[in-house]
Design goal:
By secondary structure, this protein is mainly α. The protein contains 6 helices and no strands. It is globular and about 50 Å long. The chain starts with a helix and ends in a 5-residue tail after the last helix. 27% of the residues are buried. The chain crosses the membrane at residues 6-25, 30-50, 70-92, 112-138, 144-165.
Length: 171
């Protein structure tokens, strides 16, 4: 079994996480910013590479969002440690992600695949830019954008719950 370039890009993002955390925790803003930017680029690049090379796999479809969540939670935890953000903000982000993941999993078990909604993509973009701003020590702007991403996250999460309700997926 070969891994494929897209999955290697995804795994490279996973490998960057401890370094990003280290540089954030040690006030190396330029290095942490460059590494966060590389992680963001790799997040967009892995999907593009998979589609262009016709190498979209189930492993990749599961690996990419898992690495995204590991990245987000890990980096946000570093920001909590730096007192840039509160544990409550991380709680709101993680809770929403887990609930949406649960809804999507239940729907897949019912044979219904819910693609990412537009607002979910906006949420991800806002969240990644907030993380980048926090990584380069633009804390006030990063916090504002992170709260905005949380607001958008819950609106987009509502979209998933509406599909869940409409399909009566709890039955």
């Amino acid at each position: 079994m070969s891994i494929g370039l897209a999955n290697l890009i995804t795994l490279s993002r996973l490998a960057l996480i401890p370094f990003i955390m280290y540089f954030i925790l040690n006030d190396k803003y330029l290095i942490s910013g460059v590494l966060v930017l590389l992680a963001i680029i790799s997040d967009y690049l892995d999907g593009i590479v998979a589609r262009l090379s016709n190498d979209v796999t189930k492993h990749g479809e599961l690996l990419d969002p898992a690495v995204d969540k590991i990245f987000t939670v890990s980096v946000l935890t570093a920001f909590v440690s730096k007192h840039y953000i509160s544990p409550f903000e991380v709680f709101l982000i993680v809770s929403r992600e887990m609930l949406v993941t649960w809804v999507r999993s239940v729907m897949v078990n019912k044979g219904i695949v819910i693609p990412a909604f537009f607002l979910g993509k906006v949420k991800t973009t806002l969240q990644l830019v907030a993380i980048l701003l926090l990584a380069v020590n633009f804390v006030d702007y990063g916090k504002i954008l992170l709260w905005f991403s949380i607001f958008v996250a819950y609106i987009s999460g509502f979209e998933y719950f509406m599909v869940f309700y409409r399909e009566k997926a709890w039955k």
